[in-house]
Amino acid sequence: MRVKKGKQVSITLRHPGRNRLATLLLILSVVGVLTSITLISVGVVIHTAVKPFAAILDTYDGLYLPIILTALGVAGIAVHSLLTFLLLDFTKEERADYFGKVCLAVLSCAALTMVAGIICFAHIREVKSSFKAGIFNGMKNYQNNTEMKSAVDEVQIRYQCCGVKGYEDWFTLEWINETYVADKEKLKKKRTNGAYKSDDVPFSCCDPGAFRPCIHDAVHTNSHHFNYDHTKNVTIYKTGCLVSIKNYFGPGLLFIMGIVICSIAVMEAALGGGLRILYTSLESATMTGDEFGPGTGILLPGQVQEYDDPRAADKTNNK
Question: Which of 29, 214, 227, 273 sits between 20 and 30 A of 168, alpha carbons compared?
Fold first, then answer.
């Protein structure tokens, strides 16, 4: 094998070298089928993680990234399966004719997969801002919208959080439906500017790890409870949901998925580059009339040249 660098990267391969390269590409192609299935799985995981909170998501469309990943996964399975079939006997002339188109398809998949990975990273900020607005909107509609109430409760229970930035966010909102408040005197005392506000939080804020029974009503009113001081210990989650969700979708789910997707894109690019060298080397060797002889494979776009043996040129010059 001889590598030349310049405006064009060229590698001279003989038949044994092409066989070894084809074997490596075959392995990568089989792995490509598995990674394409992984892309579909990543799309399903992201969709499953976001779907339960669709009711409170403000402007975030949690469907298009999973659709992109699923489409790329299906296309990847088809392309890599075809490539695997072609590589099993790459010297057959009827198969070799397809390598150029398949190589372009592999490189296209690599580029689109990299774009999907970048989108995954970009979604971290989008999810954060959408959840921030969505959770606050859900909290405001908690008392009269069953779907919103259910979604907010599920967020707080699943991510072990309370409110947007903290549990005190609930104190600023009229979130309790007055129909279910039996103590009418309490209604009068707690009414501010016509709105019933109190230092209560929903049951979904309760921390099951707390030793004593959960105190989620009159959280800051120490006299309302026996042997209780909210400045020292509370029985509800202190962390706001914005931080918990950011940690899950940011450094957690979407960040990891973005790394996985970009890694798949790099592998596919390497597969496409190796395939380009393989089939151009074979084409170069075929031009000399000996498909088992040496051939010059090129990496970058350009015209495939017939293999020119430098040793033959040296002998001619010596004469």
Answer: 227
